[in-house]
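Per reviewer request, we include the raw input and output of the structure prediction for the construct analysed in the revised manuscript.
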Amino acid sequence: MRIGLFATCLGDTLFPEAVKSTAVLLARLGHDVVFPPEQTCCGQMHVNTGYQREPVPLVRNFADQFGDASIEAVVMPSGSCAGSVRHQHEIVAERYGDAALRAGVATVKAKTYELSELLVDVLDVEDVGAYFPHRVTYHPTCHSLRMLRVGDKPLKLLRAVDSIDLVELPEAESCCGFGGTFAVKNAETSTAMLQDKMRNIATTGADVCTAGDSSCLMHIGGGLSRIRSGTRTLHLAQILSATRTSPYVPTEAVR
């Protein structure tokens, strides 16, 4: 399958390893991964903050970059960005776009997936040949859980990983408190929610807390590092891309 890879803003600027790992994983599974070079932000941050007209150029660019018929599917290592493309782009196009934009959005929406959705629902694979001999707990992010409804697809993929010690996260479906600008505008509430999430992570004794969104992992990871918890955060794609011949190496071991 020819798959278009969308990096996302956070992936491009702060967490490129999650994007690289997505490409490595899909290529290892035998797929042709393409990266449209003119891709930009999906516009999610604008819509979430109440600016629905402003992201029209971004939505149009996304439809142009990934609308090529030769691209059979579009994948992104982000439930929130996938949710934006599948839900918000249509709203923006209907309210402020033209007929061409609405058609382009509909075409791309139909073939856009978050990583776990693509693997389980489209490529029909759960065991991707990964190897990760560490204790791991999984945080289901709000957009993947409530907007995309990915369900237990990430857990199915994790359960199939060789040598992993996967432990259940108490109150897993509770929000971590990030929510983009919510964490800035409602800092005290966000911090309280994060403290609950970190406390639950601590009970698992996990070496790694994983999720499908770098944004939530940034929020959780920042909190865990400040209290020196010993638990690191790692994107789901990085776990799934690790193998016995190319294992995951913690950054401390590289320095």
